[in-house]
Amino acid sequence: MRLPATRTNRHGIAAAAALALIGGFFVLPSAGAEPAVTPKDVEIAFHKAEAINEQVNQLGVQVKQTQAEIDDISGDIARYSKVYRQQKGELGDAIAQQQMDAPLGPSVSLLTSKDSDQFLAGLGAVQALNSTRADALAQFGETSKELKNRRAQLEDRKADLASATKEADAKRAAIQKHYREAKAQLARLTAAQQSKFNASDTTVDFTVEASGRAKQAVDFALAQLGDPYVYGGTGPNSWDCSGLTMKAWAAAGVSIPRVVGPQMSAAKRVPMNQLVPGDLVAYSNMQHIGMYLGNGRVVHAPRPGKSVEITGLGGFSVGGRVG
To answer: 39-187 is classed in which CATH architecture?
Structure first.
């Protein structure tokens, strides 16, 4: 039996309404849509690049040390080469002179001598000459050995230098890759989120109770507020996190390593609830470092797009005291 037309329309309208209602609850994402990005995601992306930057910094230290060793070895080679040529020349001259004086050897002429005193005196002179020449030959052998060793060391250190340089170049390329990815994620935030994300607090609204060398280090770090972050920056107008802390303590007359991990290893560990101004504070993974100011605040060089700023202790979980 056919339903009345009006009833059929009601069923169609009801079905359409039901589908619309279901669609309101289950909105399917469009094909290929990217997941939403949060400021925390962007922060993590930037930290990936910073972690590699610290590896590059360590390789930079290694390259400098290796180059210094190459310079030292090259100096040794130059000195040994000079001694080698001198000793070789002296031995050559002595042998040549011996052949001119007595082609068959100095002892041959003694055998024909009828004067026993002359024979004994001459024999003693020959023995003394041979003994002196033996010492000279031994010294020449040692010089030759040292020269050979130094040349082998030089080749090894040059190979190490080339390897470290190549690795550093590869890691710099990785930094740029992660940096581009981080910037792409940053661009997906709203304008308001981006503005907040890139804002740097450079205001110190409390008294920093530091003294002695710690005060000198803190004063130096605070004097850099507003300077931009740059990968590998060690001043005077741009910084990365460990470059800032290294130079701050250098200004106080204290030498600390270049990289986050070694900096914290060189410092005396301090519980986070016992920090004093000038103490170093780092992330547990040793990818970022700053300097404690007191009042729960830290001065640090954060990441590209921001400047040296004041921040809280969030993220910092390891403390270290210099000196």
So the answer is: Orthogonal Bundle (1.10)
pLDDT tens column, 245-256? 999 999 999 999
The pLDDT, as a whole number, for residue 301 is: 98
- 319: β partners: 270, 281
CATH architecture, range 200-321: Alpha-Beta Complex (3.90)
The answer to whether 136 and 90 are in contact (CB under 8 A) is yes
Residue 89's pLDDT is what?
Answer: 83
Q: Where are the domains of the chain?
A: 39-187, 200-321
pTM as predicted? 0.72
Judge if 39-187 and 200-321 fold alike in CATH terms.
no
Tally the C-alpha atoms within 13 A of residue 284's C-alpha that lie toward its C-beta. 5
Residue of 84, 76, 221 lying closest to 150 (CA atoms): 76
CB 133 within 8 A of CB 91: yes
Closest of 215, 206, 234 to residue 310, by C-alpha: 206
pLDDT of residue 304: 93
- Distance, in Å, from the CA atom of 185 to the CA atom of 43, rounded to the nearest integer, reads 10
